[in-house]
């Protein structure tokens, strides 16, 4: 995570304040280092045990065979060296065939669903995060302009965020029922969760409903940090409302926006509960996380390979997003 | 509860209206009001619908009248009927798991938060990045090996098996939120205590800890909510053991008897799970907003 450390490092340097003075005072400094190590030790030990160790174990296991009948029909106890076979199973859809040859996985096999689940997950991420950011921005601007009732809206806006996703999924199942209120209001008769298009739309709608207010809240906090004088002087210089938005508001809320987009993207990329409860992953809604959980019952070492791949994909996208936003921030600063 | 500050201490200037004041009917004001109504509708309408359905006789599930009709409390009775499902038990389980996760991560995280926000040491940014990185791991990445370990140890469907894995996201959340809160506190008092001869540990215990109580309380609320709402780890690691599964898992598997689609009963259960959260949000909204935006704005 060396990339993410850059803005944090700056921030840490700012907040720790009198750094220069402290550096001169050597005795306090070394004392602080020792204290810091002691204070951080419990956190780092816990995270090593609960996050670090399982991930390393998963990477190791992903190179082992799963117990089961091998290609010649004998029972194989598993956990013998398997090279990249598990990875080939997922990435290249190779399944062990009869007589020891590998063949491409039949449709319906979990391995055959890998790329579609990657596509579905990334599709969900792009669509939901885009919608949430745009609508959230509108909400934040509205709330920023309005004074009466802002306290009320601020309470209302926390409610979708606070309700457990499992409950929200159940609520939307009822709303999306063919006889439910949504079809009633829209005058349609979609079988929302039993066709691939509407099922995906249902998941996007439910997620956008829950998270847009949260993003609006983050953007609103960013908006409130912008001094009004900048707008006033821009107005004096003859900038219209549109220009003020593009040239002042957007660049200045960008740091808040970037954090919201990165965190939300990571959330959607690992999304499990909403699609699992709404559709059980049926009708083209199997996300990467759902695929991993389904694989748990049919081979843990292969599941380890899948979760490692999932982890690497999410990590790469996160890194890309951080790069993207950083690059733009630098670019803006030099202009 | 004035509407002037949403957890951002700087920039009172932003609260002044941007538009000049106008005489007569104010279209801007009307537009603002419409916007407020729109946002409130967005946030509250589905929740309102859950309430209406929870109170509606299950025979009239698809009545679709927008206000409460056929009002009954039967659904709530169903939800707590132990002969049909274990929902009541699951609420207690959620409380046990949430409390344990919160206490554990606060006890561990508060020291790390202090060190990261206040002390100068080598490798601070690496530690922060590692903690933040840990929170970004997809749950499934640790789920597979943990599932295997716990099934070897017989920990599937036990409280410790549900509590410990949640530390993976709750400690980073606690440390991250506490670090940004602590960075904003009046640390001159600590300096003064240090000048007066306190050791760093004494300064922490006698000056900072009382000052930090609100920040810690807010962080604890956020951690508890995150644990209360967790689904992926709980649903897999509870392994179908009804006596330990939390309420989110119980609701996902909610049944009201054979051949009944338990819509209204599920909504009643949903309302019961949600009401405490709504109360917490109403009471502590200002703190929660500042906790949520603390990390976000400072990045």
UniProtKB/TrEMBL annotation, chain A:
Mode of membrane association: Multi-pass membrane protein
Gene3D superfamilies, A to Z: MetI-like (1.10.3720.10)
Keywords, in A-Z order: Membrane, Transmembrane, Transmembrane helix, Transport
Main location: membrane
The keyword Zinc is assigned to this record: no
Pfam families linked to this entry: BPD_transp_1
Region (Disordered): 1-26
Boundaries of every ABC transmembrane type-1 domain copy: 118-321
Membrane-spanning parts: 35-56, 118-143, 155-175, 201-223, 244-266, 303-325
SUPFAM superfamilies to which the protein is assigned, alphabetical: MetI-like
Domain of life from the UniProt record: Bacteria
Subcellular location: Cell membrane; Membrane
Name of the protein in question: Sugar ABC transporter permease
Species: Kineosporia mesophila
Automatic annotation (TrEMBL), chain B:
SUPFAM superfamilies tied to this protein: MetI-like
Membrane topology recorded in Swiss-Prot or TrEMBL: Multi-pass membrane protein
Transmembrane segments: 30-51, 91-114, 126-147, 167-187, 207-228, 263-284
Domain ABC transmembrane type-1: 91-284
Keywords: Cell membrane, Membrane, Transmembrane, Transmembrane helix, Transport
Annotated coiled-coil segments of the chain: none
Principal location class: membrane
Pfam families on file: BPD_transp_1
InterPro entries tied to this protein: BP-dep_ABC_trans_perm (IPR050901), MetI-like (IPR000515), MetI-like_sf (IPR035906)
Places the protein is found: Cell membrane
Protein family per UniProt: Belongs to the binding-protein-dependent transport system permease family.
Name assigned to this protein: Carbohydrate ABC transporter permease
Organism: Kineosporia mesophila
Taxonomic lineage of the native organism: Bacteria, Bacillati, Actinomycetota, Actinomycetes, Kineosporiales
